[in-house]
Amino acid sequence: MKSHNIFNIPFKTAKLGLHEYHFQVDDNFFANFEDSVVEKGKFDIKVNMDKKETMLDLEFEIKGSINNPCDRCLASIDVPVEAMERIVVKFDDFGKEDTDEVIYISTEETNLNVANLIYEFVSLSLPISNTIDCEANDYEFCDQKVLDYYDELEEQSEKLEEEEIEEQSKIWDALKDIKLN
Fold first, then answer.
1. pLDDT tens profile 40-53
2. Which residues form a coiled coil (predicted)?
């Protein structure tokens, strides 16, 4: 990934207490990550940093959208994404391993680059299904040809199901006529 100096948080010179940082990421940002799960998207990221004597407490507020094909009709749609993530940054010169909730940086560091964290948090907050509420938007974004095709398939499926039920009913009707005595 290319260096993203604009994502550096200068924590060393910051006073103890709360600090707020704002970042915007778009297609160019995601293009810098190999095999990125996001190709088109825009996000506003607010980072609240609580600087303490021995650590930083970072809270990421992520709001934006990705542009993907709809899973229902394949039309290009903007899928809204919102998330809140938190991570603790501790200072350590002994090479402790990072965990999901805590990352360690050298006491010699003066800046914390949050580009990778932003990418990870956005990627983890993506919805499993790329759909929007079509009815609420009067099917404005939907590919009507595909939706018509789905309706056609649904009608055919219902018709086949009715025929199958009718066929099974005939079998049971024939069994009712059998006398067991």
1. 999 999 999 999 99
2. 143-170
Radius of gyration of the chain (CA): 27
One-character DSSP codes across the chain:
----GGGEE-TTTSPSEEEEEEEEE-HHHHHTSTT-S-SSEEEEEEEEEEE-SSEEEEEEEEEEEEEEE-TTT--EEEEEEEEEEEEEEEE-SS-PPP-SSEEEE-TT---EE-HHHHHHHHHHTS-SS----TTTTTTTTS-HHHHHHHHHHHHHHHHHHHHHHHHHHHHHHHHHT----
For a pLDDT cut of 70, what percent of the chain falls above it? 92
